[in-house]
Amino acid sequence: MRLTVFFLLFIILETYALNGYSQNQKVSMNKGTATLAEIIRQIEKQTDYLFIYNEREVSLKRKVSIFTQNGTVASLLLDALKGTEFSYTMEGKHIILTKKQAEALSPVQHKKRITGLVKEYSGEAIVGCNVSVKGTTIGTITDINGKYSLEVPDNATLVFSFLGYKSMEYPVKAQQTINVTLGEDSKALNEVVVVGYGTQRKALVTNAISSFKPSESNMRPVLTPSELLQGRVAGVTVSTGSGNLGSSERMSIRGAASLSASNEPLYVVDGIPILNSNASLFNMGEDLSSMAVLNLTDIESIEVLKDAASAAIYGSRATNGVVVITTKSGKEGRSDIRLNVSTGISKFANKGRIKYADSDLYVETYNDGVERYNRQNGYTVGSAGYVVPISNPFQGLPDTDWLDLITQVGHSYNVDLSFSGGSKKTKFYVGANYNYQEGIIKTNDITKINLKAKISHEMTSWLEVGANVSGNYLKNNRVPGANIGSTIVARAVEQRPFDRPYKPNGDYYLGGTDELARHNPLQILNEEVSYIDTYRYLGTFNADLKYKKFSLKNSVSTDIGYTYDYVYYNENHPYGAGGGRIVEYNRLVKNLLIENVFNYNDKFGDFEAGLMLGHSFQKMSTRTSSIDGRGFPSPVFDTVGTASEIYNASGGISEFAMESYFGRINLSYLDRYILNVTMRSDGSSRFAPSDRYGYFPSVSLGWNVSKESFWKFPQTDLKFRLSYGKTGNQDGIGNYAWQPLMSGGINYGNNSGMAVTSMGNNKLTWETADQYDFGFDLGFWNGKLNMIADIYLKNTNNLLYSMPLHGTSGFTSITSNIGSMRNYGVEFSINGHLNIGKVNWTSSFNISHNKNKLTKLLGDDLLPIGSNRALKVGEELGAFYLFQMDGLYQYDGEVPQPLYDLGVRAGDVKYHDADNNGIINDNDRVLTGSSNPDFFGGWNNTFKYKGFQLDVFFTYMYGNDVYAEWAVTATRPGYRMAITEDVAKNRWTAPGSSDKYPRAVNTLCGHNSKNSTRFLEDGSFIRLRSLTFSYTFPQVMLQKICLKGLRLYVQGDNLLLFSKYSGWDPEVSKNMDPQYFGVDLYGVPPSRSVNFGINLSF
């Protein structure tokens, strides 16, 4: 690979260094006639010349006569262009073709030469820009550097025009140099935004829609589209459960809007709503997002529909917003081949943020706890309860770096190849991708293979057919240890520093013994195999009928996924005793979608109107099976069929169907006043027949103030937006929550049978959200500076939640509609371009603020959930429910008698006694802090100088709290687990010595380990998310070796973290549900990586 890149660079540089060009170079061509395209091709092939011309002026199909078989470039061009309206000039090794100046200057006119430079707002030169004198045929085009030179009459007006840019007129006065900057012409580009079931011109968009276009410069080494949006889009937060490859992720648009139903947005890929259920079947290890199977380089654009007015067209699945992904298509014209190759390394980030006590310091602290324990309980040497201090268990105390033993430097490789193109009638795109990534924890890696083909063909003027298919394979070798009661990382770092993984004979020390306090993490890594294979097929076949201003699109889509989940425990594994154990799960999901969409668009004078009507039918079926085999004759036999005992086998089928009708009306007047109205009706089998249908309307208004006659700022655009919409949510409750369910395998006496295992609720209904949004779009200097702001209010009603039931009912819970929630917030984003000398700076910044609170809760006003959370009316989802730490007891006399009787002494934690009864129990817990930030966002900067480019991308979050659950054990001095150096050195030892860390105690001491504010920390951070340095070679250098583009880059990801949080990373969480998010139990931080790559196009 390195040798290939070296020779490629050598060839490029050698080509660039060639100077032996002149108009006397010889060219050989057959006599007769040929097109200009053929002549240009032969000259460029046989010489070092490159042609520059304006395709709108120079017709390459024009046939000319060739009289010279072997001659110079100059003689050939003179003969070929004789009698035509074209002429040529030579500048260095560039030949510029232009139309002849048919209109000469009159003798009485004075003339002068004007020179200058034409560029775009980014600072890049515009090659081939047409420069002409208004009212004449005098003109030229800019050269390869964007420069021009032209003789013009006095008092002339120059016109600068180029496809995709706004034309500019510039009067010539006394100047001899005129430099201009052309702004993009949105009308010429026909800029559109993808919306539900169609597209809209950006000028007519009245909703809160954010667009992101993945490119070579903003790509990051991530697995899912949502991670690409991290910090890029206002109002969107993306978090990962851990840095393990394949870990679950959490994407939230404008805050959490549900308690137990899904808070994930709806993903729509090329029109197919994707089922975003996790790929892991029964919670065996990490939950992998189903979006991880997509090839990110196939993505053309991502639109985030944030307000209800834009998302309501998707009805009952759009409460959490919609992410619309459009993949690349072929374009009419020259074929394009792209090859992207990259490789990189990654490592455990921020390891030094948690510093553990070494063996000597640990033993000192531990023995202090032993001495206090024995003295408090009156134990002496020889007593039954006496605990012996540590002396020298291994004849010399080692310091084992347990984290180093289970981590590694991960390597990654990515190869991406695509081929696209098309003619006027047929367009195609074919892509293939291979991606391999090693995780930073040993045994963890992911392999992805993607194949995609997209083609459309115009059969007749009224019929176009198309196919869009992709096949995806993903294998995730997961981090073992999902069933050992904690993570593998926790089991490693909780070991005492002098513990060793191996006995002198090479066998593993076993956990829970005198030699090793916890499960041996190396044993788990080496004697457990855990992986998941995922196969995914996405396919859409469509037929589009067109007649004048009418169109009808008919499509059939299928989404088929198969996952195979495998876990093997060696016979020496704690869960493999008795000959080993294999657990297998299989799941096959079939999703069929049939849609018919009718469109009508027309103009009536100054009015522009559009009508869309549609019908959708979706059916999904899921078939699962699982089997648990135990007792194998040898580790060689690693299939369930060789098990001596089938401990458990089960299976099931689940089905779901939904039928929908939807429509949209668009109306605008002079692009000035805009009205959009949508309606959708969904019928879902997940609800009882009486509540099966839900209706989801929306209306939005837009006012383009800059289109008004009174607007006196020609280079400034201003548009106001106002919208209302209703959306729904039905995910996360299962397919049969409205009716009782029965399960088999229920034995009574000697007979097997079935029994009702869950209650149904036939009163269950849709979770709905009413959302209001007001915003504006403001642009200055023809788009050189842009601002977007929105303020919103979202009320969610009929919250779906699994309510606990009293044990006398015979059931544990029932799904019900229990309350209401409110989200409100503000979003602001700004982006702009600035030229500083020859350096172009592009910057974009966004900031968002979102708050939520429960406004209604069925039954009690306070509902505790989990060990450190609770729901309460008037409080926000994400608040912590904790004991309030009030320092430490400094003297035994301060301890209330009930607590003293339980063993609490001076040096133990003092909690706030809310009811002042001298007893600390659950009634003393309070709601405090929140995992929700006060504000968050991202800041991206791009600096360009010639072919060099530097991209610097930051993300930030402020005001969010993290519950450091890892610190419950790491700040427990005196117990048989590792502790931090800070705790060991600053623990309480005598009155006044500390008010932060309690005394050393040789017991578990649940009092000091209560879920309290002692472990609640500020999780605010600023992160250098990505830093990329690249060089793009000029096309002039590449054309001689048949390359259209070449870019080399080096990229660093997650390079810096600025945070007061004492853990490894404030963004990770052991649970991704919004009501539990923000709890860190040794979550593996996102890896720190460096990648090197090359982008080639042919």
Automatic annotation (TrEMBL):
UniProt keyword annotations, A-Z: Cell outer membrane, Ion transport, Iron, Iron transport, Membrane, Receptor, Signal, TonB box, Transmembrane, Transmembrane beta strand, Transport
Database matches in Pfam families: CarbopepD_reg_2, Plug, STN, TonB_dep_Rec_b-barrel
Stretches of the chain forming a coiled coil according to its record: none
Keyword Lyase applies: no
Subcellular location: Cell outer membrane
PROSITE patterns tied to this protein: TONB_DEPENDENT_REC_3
GO molecular function, one term: siderophore uptake transmembrane transporter activity
A biological-process GO annotation: siderophore transmembrane transport
GO cellular component, one term: cell outer membrane
Limits of the Secretin/TonB short N-terminal domain: 49-100
Protein origin, superkingdom: Bacteria
InterPro entries for the chain: Beta-barrel_TonB, Beta-barrel_TonB_sf, CarboxyPept-like_regulatory, Plug_dom, Plug_dom_sf, Secretin/TonB_short_N, TonB-dep_OMP_SusC/RagA, TonB-dep_OMP_SusC/RagA_CS
Membrane topology field: Multi-pass membrane protein
Sequence similarity: Belongs to the TonB-dependent receptor family.
Protein name: Outer membrane receptor proteins, mostly Fe transport
Lineage: Bacteria, Pseudomonadati, Bacteroidota, Bacteroidia, Bacteroidales
